[in-house]
Amino acid sequence: MKTTLGAVAARGSETDPAQAVPVPVPDIARVLGLPEEKVAQMIQVLRTNGVDEPQLSSMMAMAHAKGMPADKLFAMLVYVGAGEDRIIALMCSQDMVSAEEADRLAASARGRAQTDAHAGRARRIRAALKKAAIILFWLAVWQLLDMAMDNRLVLSGPLRVIEALADQVAKPDFWFVCAASLSRIAAGFLLSFTVGMALALASYRVRIVRDFIEPVISLLRTIPVISIIIMLLIWVGNQMLTVYLSFLIVLPLIYMNMLAGLENVDPQMLEMARVYRLSPLRSFLYVYRPAFMPFLVSSSKLSLGMSWKSGIMAEVLATPKPSIGKEMAQARTYLNTPDLFAWTVVVMLLSWLFERLFMELLKKAAGPLGSFLGRGEDDGPGAGPGAAGYGV
């Protein structure tokens, strides 16, 4: 066994160990005595969620006891996402390799890590250069079209747009206008995000609430946007139109995806939470949150774009003061195409910045919270099974 592990380590500096030795799922299933579908599912889950120490030790002992060759064992554990240093340490603790063999494996792992780091940097640089080249290509096409048409009323090239944007930035009220539009659209989106989550939670817990809410959500999904704009202009006026329109356009997306995520909770996880007597807050954080966060993240990314599109459209029609939409409407009135393009660039940048900030906060909210999971509130001498220790 030690000899075959040495062969794996010797080849490791040239190729990925998970690829150097084939690890077909049928072979693993045959050795472990499990169905192929189960093995494939286990590998996918382990590669996604990571492998903790007890899992890794158990897998290694089981495979070794059932006669899996060392090279395939090593490659299998690397393939499912276990670190090579951890594999080596556990193999040493279970007397699968000698000290000399472990040193050789560790040196090979360090060499692979350096090679992978250099390769990763090279890939990132190539990807950045490729993206920059594509952007420059389309900017050049845009500029050539502008030069060929030579009509700034119809089309303005990137050079004219940059010049117009510089003129706008130099104006004293530029940042005030940007802040006003950003605050309106952000308020509408955050309001829909909060209300959508609250309504989805209420609908999930109380069936009658869902029965009353779903017709309204269906109506908001099907009613034409222009009809909503006209009605809101009558009801709330032009200054608040952007906030209410962003709210009504985004609300169905947040509500439906949040509700779908809550309904996606594994019943076995809910049963485990009841057995271990998790409080409602901890059940929400550690059972419900991992289930609905992927749905909420995907719907938020889509909703952010829709909120900016609908919000700017509302500002163009209602022309509240101050607003980017009002500036774009004025540029349309005076056929000032460079200014129209310049404000469009501003909207794109503000939308991108707001999306990056919000999605980063949402990503942190979706991250692991294991450090907050400690002893239960009902811990004590008479606590039930698992009440005193359900750590992560």
What does this protein structure show overall?
It contains 17 helices and no strands. With 392 residues, it is mainly α. Helix 7 packs antiparallel against helix 8, helix 11 packs across helix 13 (241-263) and helix 15 (280-318) runs antiparallel to helix 17. The radius of gyration is 29 Å and the shape is flat. The chain starts with a helix and ends in a 27-residue tail after the last helix.
Sum this structure up briefly.
This protein has 392 residues and is mostly helical. It is built from 17 helices and no strands.
Summarize the helices and strands and which ones pair or pack.
Blueprint lengths: L1 H11 L4 H4 L4 H8 L3 H14 L3 H13 L4 H10 L4 H10 L5 H51 L8 H13 L3 H32 L1 H16 L2 H11 L5 H23 L3 H9 L4 H39 L5 H10 L3 H29 L27
Task: Considering the chains and any ligands shown, give keywords for the structure.
392 residues; disordered C terminus; disordered N terminus; mainly alpha; flat
Q: In terms of per-residue confidence, which ranges show pLDDT below 50 for 5 or more consecutive residues?
A: 1-22, 373-392
Number of helices: 17
- Bin the strand percentage: under 5%
> What is the helical fraction, as a range of percent?
over 70%
Largest sheet: none
> What is Rg?
29 Å
Mean pLDDT over the residues: 79
Ends distance:
35 Å
Shape: flat
Task: Give the H and E element order.
Answer: HHHHHHHHHHHHHHHHH
Sheet/helix structural class: mainly alpha
User: What is the β-strand count?
Assistant: 0
